[in-house]
Design goal:
The chain is an alpha+beta fold. The chain has one domain: 2-Layer Sandwich (Alpha-Beta Plaits), CATH 3.30.70.1120. Helix content is 38%, strand content 38%. It has a four-stranded antiparallel β-sheet. The termini are close together.
């Protein structure tokens, strides 16, 4: 089993309220889940108007499969014009 986790820091420049930010973030989380079927959630900055952090995890049978899915998730996030990507950090989880 191979598990790859990504932390994605986002800026939502057009958000002028928490409600506006959450609308953008929730839409992105749902899109990631629908298209790629991975676990995704907002994990930080819930009380800031223009910042968000997403946690994404991909589980698969091979390193290549997991990497390809995470690459596709990152491309999707980078393609969204309503958010600016500030940072993406990946880490592998290892089962002992």
């Amino acid at each position: 089993m191979h598990v790859l986790v990504a932390s994605i820091e986002l800026h939502v420049p057009a958000a002028r309220s928490l409600k506006a930010k959450r609308s953008v973030v929730l839409s992105l989380v749902r899109l990631i889940d629908q298209i790629h079927g991975v676990a995704c959630a907002e994990v930080d900055h819930q009380n800031l108007w223009q910042r968000s952090a997403l946690g994404v995890s991909v589980v698969g049978g091979t390193v290549g499969q997991v990497t390809n899915v995470m690459d596709a998730v990152e491309r999707l996030v980078w393609s969204r014009t309503e958010v600016e990507v500030l940072d993406i950090h990946r880490s592998w989880w290892e089962d002992e």
